Amino acid sequence: MTIDETLPRDATSTPRRVAEIVSAASDLGAIWVAVAVLQVLSRRATPRQAATRLGAAGIVSLVLTRWLKHRYAVPREPAAPTSVARTPTSDRFPSGHTLAAFTAALTVPRQPSGRALALAVAALVGWARVRVGHHRVVDVVAGASVGTVAGSALAAVLSVPSAP
Hints:
Distance between the termini: 59 Å
Number of domains: 1
Order of helices and strands: HHHHHHH
Shape: globular
Number of strands: 0
Low-confidence stretches: none
Helix content: 55-70%
Radius of gyration: 16 Å
Largest sheet: none
């Protein structure tokens, strides 16, 4: 028995509703846009810094997701309909939402404490993608792994001070 088989699939269960909301909030990077805006409002980043980090994470994760999904082309099994989370039309491997979440979690926040919290949110996105039935655990682990490498590389590049 897998962990998914032990979870209730009832669409009204609290874990299912939380998963749907988290999954929907991760569509098109909405969570990470909110993080970037909060950084600007709290004066932890300038608008330019926040936009650069958000844009870099978005472009890199989009390119990697499209390339990997095309490369592996693992068809998606029909998922149970959800009331909030959009059902993807692309192949399922790797999880693009999770790849983008881990890339952004390591790129958008400028401080290590912010990255730690963002990584917890990224893990929640991965859990939500499995919970709503859009991905298998292996899809999410692959997305998290690629996103971690990409986000770490981006964070390193973006942390290098620019020449005057």
